[in-house]
Write a structure and sequence with these properties.
By secondary structure, this protein is of the alpha/beta class. 26% of the residues lie in helices and 18% in strands. It is built from seven helices and nine strands, in the order ββαββαβαβαβαβαβα. Helix 4 packs parallel to helix 5. The radius of gyration is 26 Å and the shape is flat. The two termini are 28 Å apart.
Length: 231
């Protein structure tokens, strides 16, 4: 069955399953749509279609021979006369390595999405849920700030240009109290000048700017790395 492929900016295809998994834009989290499907909700991650998952995970055969080149064998040198033993060095203090950051599961984390555009909000929600995260949404900065009274999100994904209380005002409101420790990813469809970007980056919890349309693989990689999650 052929599929269309969403690369974050446009729809590509249709492709056969073999051509689809060979595309450089393809990954198991890529959103694909089967040709002939009438339901708009059929856009799903590739991992949810059995024929695509089986083809992508099939081993690739190679008939090319493997050649190993060994270095030339050297003759063994004569045994040197052993020097007198050196004095024992002073003991070096043992430095304990820093403990590794423990990995967590996506379902351990709640992510708050703030965007007045229902299409973008629904797309980001679908992407995060397909990764296994719990999700809450708000349509502007005022609604998002109110939700923080009862929610403790691990991450906030917010638009900048929104009616009412916009993204920048919302960012400023987070700098008081416990909310100033919540990492933030900023989404924007606007071209921002360097001074505006520098001003927003001064907020310590702003991790990254990402432009719309969203590049799904880059977005999910950043979220998983930020939260230290493993699926």
């Amino acid at each position: 069955m052929p599929y269309y492929l969403e690369d974050g900016q446009k729809t590509l295809g249709p492709f056969s399953v073999e051509d689809l998994v060979a595309r450089p834009e393809f990954s198991m989290t890529s959103l694909i749509f089967p040709v002939g499907a009438e339901d708009g909700n059929a856009w799903k991650p590739a991992s949810e279609y059995a024929d695509v998952a089986a083809t992508a995970q099939a081993p690739k055969n190679s008939d090319a021979p493997i050649t190993l080149t060994l270095p030339p064998r050297k003759s063994r040198p004569a045994e040197p006369i052993a020097p007198p033993p050196a004095p024992a060095p002073a003991e070096t203090p043992v430095v304990e390595p820093e403990p590794l950051r423990p990995l967590s599961l996506p379902q351990d984390h709640l992510i708050l999405i703030v965007d007045d555009d229902e299409t973008v909000r629904s797309l980001v929600e679908m992407i995060l849920k397909s990764e296994g995260y719990r999700v809450a949404t708000a349509t502007d900065g005022r609604a998002a700030a109110a939700s923080l009274a009862t929610l403790s999100p691990s991450l906030i994904v917010t638009d900048l240009m929104m009616p009412g209380v916009g993204g920048y005002e919302f960012l400023r409101s987070l700098q008081d109290g416990h909310s100033n420790k919540i990492p933030i990813i900023v989404l924007t469809a606007s071209e921002l000048d360097k001074s505006t970007v520098a001003l927003i980056r001064q907020e310590a919890n702003v991790l990254e700017f990402m432009s719309k349309p969203l590049k799904v693989t880059r977005f999910t990689t950043l979220v998983n790395k930020t939260l230290g999650t493993v699926r």
